[in-house]
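Subject: Sanity check before I submit

Could someone independently write out the structure tokens for this chain? I want to compare against mine line by line before I put it in a report. The sequence has 111 residues.
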Amino acid sequence: MIRSLIPLVLLAGPALAEEVPANGGEIRALLSEVTLTYEAAVQTFYASGRTLYDDGQPSWGYWEVRGDQYCSQWPPQAGWACYDVLHDPTAPGRITFLGESGTRYPGQVTE
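---
Independent answer below. Compare away.
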């Protein structure tokens, strides 16, 4: 029995999207004066440190960068919650917040 060897040909295709962590300066640049659209909400980040989250009920909070994390605080709670920020340099405008538990909150910059 003769066996033929069939060469394996790998076709070049588009690179898969790769999210990378943003550092503190990148987080400021990615979020300041930007509006993100999530699956069921919209959030605007003002340079003043205020943020407006609207999922049908507007809610005002505060945001800041601490080290290499985005942190937010929503009155009347006094505590701050911090998240890593991931972005894809090949897909500008796509930003994902990554919670301590591993929960992902993807958003898209609204034009």
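---
OP: Matches mine. For the report I'm noting this point. The chain has a mean pLDDT of 87.
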